[in-house]
Amino acid sequence: MASQKALAALTQRFGKLETSEFRGQTRVVVPRDKLLDVVRMLRDELAFDLLVDITCVDYLNYRNAQHRFGLVYLFAVTETNERLTLRVFLDEPQLSVDSLVPLYEGANWLEREVFDMFGIRFEGHPDLRRILLPEEFTAFPLRKDYPLQGRGERHNFPVLTRDEG
Amino acid sequence: MPLEPATLTSLPEAGGDEQEYLWTLNFGPQHPATHTTLRIVLKLAGEQVVDAIPDIGYLHSGFEKIGESLDYNQYVTVTDRMNYISPLANNVAWHHAVETLLGIDVPRRAQYIRTIVAELARISDHLLCCGAMGLDVGAFTFFLYAFNERETLYDAFETLCGARFTTSYTRVGGVMRDASPLFIEKVRHFVRAFPRTLDDMERLLNRNRIFIDRTRGVGVLTKQEALARSCTGPVARASGVTMDLRKDAPYLAYEDFDFNVCCMTTGDCYARYLVRMAEMRESLKIVSQAIENLPSGPVNLDTGERVTIPDKSQVYTTIEGCISHFELIMANRGIEVPHEESYAAIEAPNGELGFYIVGDGSDVAYRARCRPPSFIHFAVFPHLIRGHTLSDVVAVLGSLNIIAAELDR
Fold first, then answer.
1. Is the N or C terminus of chain B more exposed, i.e. has fewer CB atoms within 10 Å?
2. What ipTM did this prediction achieve?
3. How many CB pairs under 8 A join A and B?
4. Does B11 contact A at CB distance below 8 Å?
């Protein structure tokens, strides 16, 4: 769906970026440190005014995977419904990436959810706390090394009796 | 665990004197006007809301983690429980995403049936949203009108798939079972009868002094803010964003139908209410066109495609059906899924509901991410409520249509 114009403009500015296409969806792999610049260009020059979603995939057990984590940024142009997916790959010690909150306010909770579920830190995020899970939770449950049934966190919550409450 | 509101604050520290006069009010998690389980910590100066700090996660049940252990047909039961106000739209969204990943198109009749149920789900969702919003600002009669019509819809859903609430109606490559003549008759009856109720509802509230005072100019979201904060659906359209996936990227059978995209520019609670009311009429137009032009033919893909579990009559009488059944049911067989990932979305009643699915060759998704519109719209809430009074909280909350099961997943 993404026009060749956007891709050409990105290539011209940032050099050769790895792109792929599947079912009509264009994906561009962006180096970790260039994310903010690429997104700024998408928003200001290429009219991608809507950040659709931010999510992450843990490629721990995935066949032929090169990296541990792959962030997914979905962008859209609301006028033409042109879409573009950015991928940022991260590996174990360096689990942080620039936050998009300065550019898109909507990234705030989406990034918090990724942090909550995968433990990826977003540099420059104004309020990076857990969002769905309780503050005292220590694991990152959507990682592939976390078991489906949990590690007993629910059973070990402190019990609040009626007298204390 | 009780959270200390002081640690939650997102406001810069105000001057020492001023801070003493702020009240803290816990709104929820059990409160009749939140309708679902969510909690907002409100900071009040008198009756004015200075800040609102949402605290969500009470209904978090790990739907995305469950998605990594259930196969593509089983997971549809979990999608029912996301936005349980319009489960059929979620079913359609999930299997639309799965079929995008597989690269298959469902038969024409299934596309039409899915379009009909998705639009009926939209009507039922908007009825609840508008009705509950009316209820919260004091219009109880309006709520009863809305719920009476929802009952008719639930009745039709029951005829269609045997369940009123947790429908689980779609399957990979088709639907659970064909629309019966009785269902079609019930939908026709609804299409005939509903406009009169809708007229009544509009007459009750559209020019109601109290309702307008409570909603007009309250919780204004400008177009720029709506875009910057990733809003979609009626919330964005009430602010002047003319985005509607049914028109922009027609999926299913939407290309065949004549309907309008309803927009407003004011972006307040009243505009969101009006957009939803207008969208119900447009949905009704789509349903009536679809039900009268319902194509004949199969509702599931052919057994040769080997994605849909064949009908029992085929399994018992034909060798192809029998083989296909076993191929799909047996462990380590199932549907052939590409080793790829894709995103597909539909225009759900609340906004863009999309699924990002990573396939790893097996018939269980490696990752099943849901883009939940409620989650994104609730993030806007603190921004909308700042500076309004406490009584406006329910009006804004109602107009955003926050469904906590989808919010927390």
1. N
2. 0.90
3. 112
4. no
State the pTM of this model: 0.89
pLDDT in tens, B259-289: 999 999 988 999 999 999 999 999 999 999 9
Nearest alpha-carbon partner for B67 in B78, B82, B57, B59: B78
The encoded tokens of residue A132 equal: 């769905």
Domains of chain A: 4-149 (3.30.460.80)
Q: Domains of chain B by range and CATH?
A: 5-55 (no CATH), 63-301+334-371 (1.10.645.10)
Nearest-Å Rg of the Cα atoms of chain A is 18
Beta carbons of B367 and A57 less than 8 Å apart: yes
Contact with chain B for residue A3, Cβ under 8 A: no
User: What is the rounded CA–CA span in Å between residue A49 and residue B289?
Assistant: 34
d(CA B67, CA B279): 32
SS3 state at B352: strand
The verdict on a CB contact (< 8 Å) between B1 and A141 is no
pLDDT recorded at residue B7:
44
Please confirm whether the linkage preceding A102 is cis (ω < 30° from 0): no
Q: Which residues of B touch A130 (CB under 8 A)?
A: 57
> Using CB atoms, which residue from A23, A104, A133 is nearest to B230?
A104
Give contacts of B379 with chain A, Cβ < 8 Å. Answer: 106, 108-109
Q: Per-10-residue mean pLDDT for chain A, 165 residues long?
A: 74 82 87 89 87 91 88 90 90 89 90 91 89 86 88 77 79
Burial readout B28-45 (b: 16 or more C-beta within 10 A, e: otherwise): bbebeebbbbbbbbbbbe
Please check whether residue A132 touches B, CB under 8 A. Answer: yes
Answer whether B339 sits within 8 Å of A63, measured CB to CB: yes
Coil, strand or helix at A5: helix
Shortest CA distance from A157: residue in chain B: B1
* B358 in A contact zone (CB under 8 Å): yes
Rounded distance between C-alpha atoms, residue B46 and residue A97, angstroms? 41
* Cβ neighbours of A74 in B, within 8 Å: 343, 354, 356, 371
Return the residue in A42, A74, A117 with the most chain B beta carbons within 10 A, the one to mutate for interface testing.
A74
Mean pLDDT rounded to a whole number for chain B: 87
In sequence order, the 6+-apart residues with CB closer than 8 A to the CB of B299 are B107, B109, B110, B113, B174, B175, B177, B178, B179
Question: Is the distance from CB of B322 to CB of A4 less than 8 angstroms?
Answer: no
- Give the chain B residue nearest A60 (alpha carbons): B366
Q: What is the pLDDT of residues B155-193, one digit of tens each?
A: 999 999 888 888 889 988 888 888 889 999 999 999 999
Query: What is the structure's pLDDT at A12?
Result: 82
Contact (CB, 8 A) for B56 and B39? yes
Specify the pLDDT at position B16.
Answer: 53
Does residue B8 register a pLDDT over 50?
no
Identify all chain A residues contacting B1, using CB atoms and an 8 Å cutoff.
134-136, 157-158
Tokens of B258: 């004549």
